[in-house]
Amino acid sequence: MPTRRRPPSGPTSNSQRRPSTVSRPAEATVEPLRAESAPSTGPHTHVPASAAPVLTVEGLDVTIGRTVRAVRDVSFSLARGEAVGLVGESGSGKSLTCRSVLGVLPPGCRVSDGRITFSPGTDTAADGATDADVATLPASESAELTALSRKEWNAIRGRRIGAVFQDPASYLNPSLTVGGQLSEQLRVGRGLSRSEAYARAVELFAAVGLHRPAELYHQYPHELSGGMLQRVLIAIAVSCEPELLIADEATTALDVVIQAEILELLQSLRKEQGLALLLVTHDLAVVAESCDRVVVMYAGEIVEDGPTAEVLAAPAHPYTEALLRVASIGDWGRRELDIIPGRPPETGADLPGCRFADRCAYVTKECTAGPVALRTLDGGRRARCLRPAGPSGETPSAAAADPGLPVPQGAAL
């Protein structure tokens, strides 16, 4: 009869697997990217609950075609200066969620329900923009992103909301120099002259850790490595000093050393610019190093949400626990390598109960009897589980697996 137990107490960092410090080239020492820096923040830094949210997602549904609900009732928020990790397996709905925020859903996908509210709080992103652009910028208080026209989106995306994706080469024009592409963003988004844009582009390339930025300005994408291209894309994404930066699997295709450098760069930019960071990844180790809070998704739903340090030390949902075993993070790394048995449900499949039930080692008949709500736990954490793990690391007494339901093969007992 399985019960949920925690590994022995100890640090939850993953420093043995990833470098924690990276040397910076001399050119990176430049003036801050924003004149007034926000208070210093970093991994596991507590952001006060009273901090005004920059982004609020409420009851988001994304539908593929006419009837396939790929994302279901997703709700979360980001405060200014906060880093939130959106984690899950491929097909969990995390990328569709972030692309909904950016207004760039793939063809055939649409936001079918819910609200996405962007509340920058200032109009600094409009400085230097043309009169026509400023006219399309929404009021600083808030903007309902799902209701924006294409013209209004063009005034926000790239200026107030920046984005970095997994394959930078596919987002850069191969026939233009990388410096020319950054300068164009500065001229359109900030209203700079040609000479001002060139000078600022060189500063930005240095700020993101690129050597010899004046020479690199004239190079083409095919002349740069993957890590250098990712830095170029980050420079473009933050060039207009956005309030929100979305990084969708931005380090996935990079080796572990370059990953560490890019993550450190994102943290540095977050401190200097005071921007909110939504980090979309399948790698919990990345979240452990970089995020204040983690939102775990499975089969289109949020299954757990809470402060990163607390969730990694004592996961409340069986799926989060399984991810930690597979990732071998912290004390979970002291155990043998594990797998999550079974397969996720088909995208959009309507199931009678918990969507993780057929892969869960703690499943009971009650888990499959009806929908499971996302419940608020002590400390403001949330978990979509009828019997979330308690502080002792064991489920409540009623959480013993029902003997009438088989334990999934390969589950840890």
UniProtKB/TrEMBL annotation:
Q: Recall the GO molecular function terms of this protein's record.
A: ATP binding; ATP hydrolysis activity
List GO BP terms, alphabetically: peptide transport
Q: What is its main location?
A: membrane
Entry-linked SMART domains: AAA (SM00382)
* Comp. bias intervals (Polar residues): 14-23
The UniProt keyword set, sorted, is: ATP-binding, Cell inner membrane, Cell membrane, Membrane, Nucleotide-binding, Translocase, Transport
SUPFAM superfamilies named among the record's database cross-references: P-loop containing nucleoside triphosphate hydrolases
Query: Is Plastid there in the keyword field?
Result: no
Which Pfam families does the protein's record reference?
ABC_tran, oligo_HPY
User: Which GO cellular component terms are attached?
Assistant: plasma membrane
Membrane topology of the entry: Peripheral membrane protein
Instruction: List where in the cell it is found.
Output: Cell membrane
For region Disordered, the annotated ranges are 1-50, 386-413
Residue span, ABC transporter domain: 55-324
Q: Which family does it belong to?
A: Belongs to the ABC transporter superfamily.
Question: Which PANTHER family does the record associate with it?
Answer: ATPASE AAA-TYPE CORE DOMAIN-CONTAINING PROTEIN, OLIGOPEPTIDE TRANSPORT ATP-BINDING PROTEIN APPD
Q: Which NCBIfam families match?
A: oligo_HPY (TIGR01727)
> Which protein, by its recorded name, is this?
ABC transporter ATP-binding protein
Q: Which organism is it from?
A: Streptomyces himalayensis subsp. aureolus
